[in-house]
Amino acid sequence: MGAEKILLLATAALALVSNLLPHSLVEYERSAIAEGQLWRLWSGQFCHWSPLHLAGNLAALIGVVVVAGRGARRWLALLPLAAPLLSLFLFVAAAHLERYRGLSGLVALLIVGAAVEGGSIGRLLGLAYVGKLIFDAATGSESALLPNGIHTAWEAHLGGLLLGLAAAAGFRLRARSFP
Predict the structure, then answer these.
(1) Cα–Cα distance between 82 and 75 in angstroms, integer?
(2) Alpha-carbon separation of residue 172 from 67, 116, 177, 178 (angstroms)
(3) In 3-state terms, what secondary structure has residue 98?
(4) For the domain with range 3-177, which CATH number is right: 1.20.1540, 1.10.3210, 3.30.70, 1.10.260?
(5) Which of 139, 23, 16, 116 is nearest to 64 (CA)?
């Protein structure tokens, strides 16, 4: 079995386990991570606040994958590697964020993939997403997918976009090195 398939299976397993276990054990929780509960660096990016939140994130993921086309596999395979990096980004860049749940930061990474792989529609999606990110950061908006009192964690979306840009640069460098 190739590395890409193993990473894709790891993505599915993380999503399944993180949504079946009690969320209090798997969510990104700053103080628990600081105390050494490092699994939360992965699981917090895959568990969700509610079934509606999960459904919305999965719908976004599927839509982005459709836009990206065949190239989406290599981007999806990055998710278990990107999850702890995104959590570390939140730990450093969003000190006020005590708890986080959701796939949307990793979906932001996939949006960069769609912009790279998905032609004009993918680039338009990427541009629209950057506009949404700016709006969310400026307004602190809430999402209809989140329970009352939970705000959109735009910092996770920014971190996902930055990780996506790093991945795009890595893929480009690899393609030049190994034509």
Answers:
(1) 10
(2) 19, 10, 9, 10
(3) coil
(4) 1.20.1540
(5) 116
Cα–Cα distance measured from residue 87 to residue 44, given in angstroms and rounded to the nearest whole number:
8
Return the structure tokens found at 118: 């998905």
Q: How far is CA 86 from the centre of its chain?
A: 8
Give tens-digit pLDDT for 3-40.
999 999 999 999 999 999 999 999 999 999 999 999 99
d(CA 108, CA 27): 19
The residue written with tokens 């990793």 in the block is: 106
Burial of 24 (0-12, 13-18, 19+ CB in 10 A): exposed
Dihedral angle computed from the Cα positions of residues 19, 25, 26 and 28, in that order, rounded to the nearest 10 degrees: 140
Give pLDDT < 70 ranges for the chain: none
* Domain boundaries defined on the chain: 3-177
